[in-house]
Amino acid sequence: MQRLASYVFFIVCCGLALSQPKTDQKCLREKVITFPQLTTSSWAKLHPNESMDMSAVTVCLRFYSDQTTGIPSLFSLATPSLPQDFTLSWSADLKQYQMFIHNTPVQFKGLTFNLNQWNSVCATWDAISGLAQVFVNEVASIRKLAGPKEAFKGAPVITLGQYQTQYDGGFQQSNVFTGFISDVHVHKQVLTTRQIKTYIGAKTKYKLGDFINWHNLKFTIAGSAQVEEKQQVTFYTKEEQI
Ligand SMILES: *[C@@H]1O[C@H](CO)[C@@H](O)[C@H](O)[C@H]1NC(C)=O
Question: pLDDT tens digits, residue range 5-14?
């Protein structure tokens, strides 16, 4: 009986251990985070070393998905008073990218979204001009006025694959991302178009983020989200296949 009890205890503990959020600090070069399920209980959080005092930002990432409905959230940065302080989503229904700057939405049309291929995205904004711009694969958007011209301040909660409707949570089913996300870099400045081109072209020597660096990332994953090897067979951009 005692043996059975300890066996049951072991099973319960292991089951719990597997579903508990796990925090790690690693180089995720050549790795992806896989979001294999359309559920609000799977997510990844990225932990910067410092709190924010940034008057400019560039967020670069690559994603791979087959979603044709909803508004999957790629990147969501919340502060206590501004749950959509900086977000980047793909609105599948309207076929446009959507950013929020300090809780104010702005849309970008006519940019590419390739199903079941890597899409490389960089989104920039700075508080001096107040202008946001999105680059996807080989196309740059126009520059649009977005949000109040104020710096990003405070301790952020950054999630991948989920959209925060409140500080540190409030995930919604319609904003769940499913697929792969990789190479997430956050810079405390607006990168030059040349630097963005180098990143998008997946050249090896692109600039690594000085706020969030995929090659030395402190992160927590939960639910069915997991770190996996990048599958090189489908990685190459059109340009590189020629
Ligand atoms: C955060 O701190 C760690 C440990 O000091 C360091 O290795 C890492 O590069 C830092 N990350 C960034 C983005 O500066």
Answer: 554 444 444 4
Ligand 1 midpoint to CA 216 (Å) = 6
pLDDT of residue 75: 98
Burial of 226 (0-12, 13-18, 19+ CB in 10 A): middle
Evaluated on CA atoms 197, 198, 199, 203, the torsion sign reads positive
pLDDT digits (tens, 9 = 90+) for 46-105: 999 999 999 999 999 999 999 999 999 999 999 999 999 999 999 999 999 999 999 999
Q: Is any ligand 1 atom within 6 A of the Cβ of residue 207?
A: no
C-beta 188 within 6 A of ligand 1: no
> The pTM is what?
0.88
Angstrom distance (rounded) from CA 59 to CA 27: 18
Average pLDDT, the chain: 90
CATH of domain 23-230: 2.60.120.200
Which of 55, 42, 100, 52 lies closest to 76, judged by CA? 100
Residue nearest to atom 1 of ligand 1 (CA): 49
In the chain, the largest separation of any two C-alpha atoms, in whole Å, equals 71
Distance of CA 117 to the CA centre of its chain: 16
Segment holding 5, helix H or strand E: helix 2-19
CA distance 153 to 150: 9
Residues 6+ positions from 188 with CB-CB distance below 8 Å: 54, 56, 57, 210, 211
Q: By C-alpha distance, which of 184, 181, 182, 219 is closest to 23?
A: 219
Which protein residue has the closest C-alpha to ligand 1 atom 9? 216
